[in-house]
């Protein structure tokens, strides 16, 4: 039986659907990791402490500090961590909020998200990934794209988030592919890259035609035998193309870095490449851990 690690600190990424935790060494290495489906969306306020204990109790021997980010700090989370207004650094150790706990081994502090007044926008969790990206790429000046359920485009300069914009691209894809009339034409997980490329181009050139092009996916399935793989790829391409059309002021002529899941990020890289933009990619986990490490005094001087 492997002995439980004694971490210098514990990193926690607590989203709506999942909870992930890492036992971290003082040198920034991951000693152990664990995850569960105890996301914020399933928990009442009194359920957060037991959910965390179920996951990390073996790591608590030395009472390590715990740094958390994500929806755990939302209004529906463990304790609300008020948004910080941009322009500002993505994270600030002085803004961490302590969570109320009953177990004396728990010392949990939550990172707040960011807000923008005009146009109104918010992020929670992505700010930590942005901070990690800036730690991994010192001196970075440009744009970060964080694709996902609610994709974010953030302009960063001089170590600060200057502005950002959110697109509900991932949520729209999920709703349209599983809960709309389009669901009948795209079962499975197939993919057609040529169909994706064409759809991205169509949406970028005529974004006002999106509603009609979406219904054409259903019509083409009925009268022209559009395959499920092509239908799925076209839907994704139309939505990502619409997003790129709206985010053009962010990526046009800018240095762009993507922080996201590998498959989804690859789709954005492909779509941007067709517009002459060469985007680099970073791992979500690497950025999250680097961001939380920037808040931990246990890691000072480790990088």
Overview of the molecule:
The protein has 303 residues and is an alpha/beta fold. It has two domains: 9-124, Nucleotidyltransferase, domain 5, CATH 3.30.420; 167-282, Nucleotidyltransferase, domain 5. It is 34% helix and 21% strand. The protein contains nine helices and 14 strands. The strands form three sheets. It has a six-stranded mixed beta sheet with strand order 3-2-1-4-7-6, with helices on both faces. Strands 12-11-10-13-14 form a five-stranded mixed beta sheet, sandwiched between helices. A hairpin with a 4-residue loop joins strand 1 (9-14) and strand 2. The radius of gyration is 21 Å and the shape is globular.
Topology:
Elements: E1 9-14, E2 19-24, E3 30-36, H1 48-56, E4 66-70, E5 84-85, E6 97-98, E7 108-110, E8 114-116, E9 121-123, H2 126-136, E10 142-146, E11 151-157, E12 160-167, H3 169-179, H4 193-205, H5 210-223, H6 228-246, H7 248-251, E13 256-259, H8 262-273, E14 280-282, H9 284-293
Parallel strand pairs: 1-4, 4-7, 5-8, 10-13, 13-14
Antiparallel strand pairs: 1-2, 2-3, 6-7, 8-9, 10-11, 11-12
- The name CATH uses for the topology of the largest domain is Nucleotidyltransferase, domain 5
Strand content: 15-25%
**For the residues shown, what is the average pLDDT?**
95
The helicity comes to 25-40%
Please identify the structural class as seen in this structure: alpha/beta
Number of domains: 2
N- to C-terminal distance: 32 Å
- What is the overall shape? globular
Main sheet: strand order: 3-2-1-4-7-6
Elements, N to C (H/E) = EEEHEEEEEEHEEEHHHHHEHEH
At the fourth CATH level, what is the homologous superfamily of the largest domain? 2-keto-3-deoxy-galactonokinase, substrate binding domain
- What's the architecture of the largest domain in CATH terms? 2-Layer Sandwich
CATH class of the largest domain: Alpha Beta
Supply Rg: 21 Å
Number of strands: 14
């Amino acid at each position: 039986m492997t002995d439980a690690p004694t971490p210098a600190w514990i990193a926690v990424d607590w989203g709506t659907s999942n909870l992930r935790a890492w036992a971290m060494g003082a040198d920034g290495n991951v000693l152990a990791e664990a995850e569960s489906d105890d996301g914020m969306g399933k928990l009442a306020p009194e359920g957060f402490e037991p959910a965390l204990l179920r996951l990390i109790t073996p790591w608590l021997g030395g009472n390590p500090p715990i740094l958390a980010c994500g929806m755990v700090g939302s209004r529906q989370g463990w304790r609300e961590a008020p948004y910080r207004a941009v322009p500002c650094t993505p994270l600030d150790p002085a803004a961490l909020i302590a969570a109320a706990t009953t177990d004396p081994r728990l010392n949990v502090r939550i990172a707040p998200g960011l807000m923008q007044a005009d146009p109104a926008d918010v992020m929670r969790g992505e700010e930590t990934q942005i901070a990690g990206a800036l730690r991994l790429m010192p001196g970075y000046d440009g744009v970060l794209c964080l694709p996902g359920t609610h994709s974010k485009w953030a302009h960063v300069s001089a170590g600060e988030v200057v502005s950002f914009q959110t697109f509900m691209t991932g949520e729209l894809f999920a709703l349209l592919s599983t809960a709309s009339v389009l669901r009948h034409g795209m079962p499975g997980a197939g993919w057609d890259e040529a169909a994706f490329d064409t759809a991205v181009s169509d949406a970028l050139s005529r974004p006002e035609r999106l509603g009609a092009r979406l219904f054409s996916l259903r019509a083409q399935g009925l009268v022209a035998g559009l395959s499920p793989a092509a239908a799925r790829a076209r839907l994704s391409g139309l939505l990502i193309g619409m997003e790129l059309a709206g985010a053009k002021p962010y990526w046009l002529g800018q240095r762009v870095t993507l922080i996201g899941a590998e498959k989804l990020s690859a789709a954005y890289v492909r779509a941007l490449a067709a517009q002459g933009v060469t985007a680099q990619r970073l791992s979500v986990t690497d950025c999250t851990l680097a961001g939380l490490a920037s808040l931990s005094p246990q890691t000072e001087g480790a990088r």
